[in-house]
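To illustrate the input format used throughout this study, we show a single complete record. The first block contains the structure-token representation of the backbone; no residue identities are included at this stage. The design step must infer an amino acid for every position from geometry alone.
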């Protein structure tokens, strides 16, 4: 028996037995309607009789602006155009652009939650990049001059964990340069990788405590029966944990010395044959500064609060992983696939970091980035 085409649309009714499940044969298109963005479809779930639009639970749902204008604004956010410039070019208020950014960031978080899990990586590079919010110097600072964890102004940092072998941005966090933020970055990385990779960073001391907090073994001691207080459990680093540092010494902004230091797991590091380096994650920092206007040096386009900066970073992370081909990952096309398109003959097959990591099988379009829907994690495989 032929099943109706559901166009990849899941039922949005939480009370339905096919809630957020695709390709179940319960959804079919029943009508179309015209909007400012063109023709759209109306679907119906035959199990619960719920009718819904194809843009339900996407960035474009219930918007009066055309999809082309919304995508243009979000694309401009990713190519270092500030809010004032976007509003001037497209003729929309800055508050409207920020509302679109909030939706896009929520979509990016869903993409990261569903795709970035069980990543088969062998090494992770950690680094943090300085920025500021509202003003360069905070009104209230700690003894080291950093912004307080709850402060929404002053010096902030963009923390990135990066898988160099597949050029994948695993986690991105915005916060002060404190131990709590370092633990947040390492915990997010641990939740998305498979096994225990090797970690490399600069000489920032908080990374060691954060790694031990995430990867450790607790040794307990049985009661001895003797008088006195029982021995407390001992928390030690995981025996397979590898952590190396690339220590830089600078003077007046100039690099004097560069040395490596193996903090944990020297034997396993030798067995893996890895080199302590943070070059690629620092290159990603440059990519972020070139792509996002608030991260540019000596800029007047800084964000006014931490949440806006976090939304931009998370949105760019999803775009970088699934929709932005990486030149170092491209593969040569076989001769029989090099078909001329006029005067152009493609020689390479584009590849994104997500494709290199095996979590997607194609380069996502920008509209796919904003409209894709996912099934619950318990009902989908890792490859989806």
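Output of the design step:
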């Amino acid at each position: 028996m032929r099943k109706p085409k559901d166009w990849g649309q899941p039922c949005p009714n939480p009370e339905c037995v096919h809630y957020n499940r695709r390709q179940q044969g319960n959804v079919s298109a029943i009508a179309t309607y015209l909007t400012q963005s063109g023709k759209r479809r109306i679907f119906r779930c035959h199990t619960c009789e719920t009718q819904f639009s194809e843009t339900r639970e996407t960035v474009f749902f219930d918007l009066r602006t055309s999809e082309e204008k919304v995508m243009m604004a979000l694309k401009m956010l990713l190519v270092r155009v500030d809010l004032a410039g976007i509003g001037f070019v497209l003729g929309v208020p800055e508050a409207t652009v920020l509302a679109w950014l909030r939706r896009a960031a929520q979509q990016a978080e869903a993409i990261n939650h569903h795709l970035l899990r069980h990543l088969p990586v062998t090494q992770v590079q950690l680094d943090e990049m300085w920025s500021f919010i509202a003003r360069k110097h905070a009104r209230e600072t700690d003894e080291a001059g950093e912004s307080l964890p709850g402060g929404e102004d002053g010096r902030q940092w963009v923390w990135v964990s990066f898988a160099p072998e597949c050029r994948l941005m695993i986690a991105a966090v915005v916060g002060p340069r404190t131990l709590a933020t370092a633990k947040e970055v390492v915990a997010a990385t641990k939740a998305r990788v498979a096994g225990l990779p090797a970690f490399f960073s600069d000489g920032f001391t908080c990374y060691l405590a954060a790694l031990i907090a995430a990867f450790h073994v607790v040794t307990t001691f049985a009661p001895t029966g003797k008088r006195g207080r029982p021995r407390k459990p001992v928390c030690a680093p995981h025996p397979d944990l590898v952590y190396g540092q690339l220590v830089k010494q600078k003077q007046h902004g100039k690099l004097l010395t560069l040395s490596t230091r193996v903090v944990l797991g020297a034997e396993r590091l030798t067995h893996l044959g890895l080199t302590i380096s943070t070059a690629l994650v620092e290159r990603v920092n440059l990519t972020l500064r070139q792509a996002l206007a608030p991260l540019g040096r000596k800029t007047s386009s800084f964000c006014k609060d931490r949440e806006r900066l976090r939304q931009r970073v998370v949105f760019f992370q999803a775009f970088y992983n699934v929709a932005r081909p990486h030149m170092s990952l491209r593969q040569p096309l076989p001769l029989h696939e090099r078909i001329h398109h006029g005067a152009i003959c493609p020689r390479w097959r584009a590849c994104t970091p997500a494709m290199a990591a095996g979590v997607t099988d194609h380069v996502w379009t920008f509209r796919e980035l904003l409209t894709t829907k996912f099934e619950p994690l318990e009902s989908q495989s890792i490859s989806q």
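Structural context for interpreting the output: The chain has ten helices and 13 strands. The radius of gyration is 24 Å.
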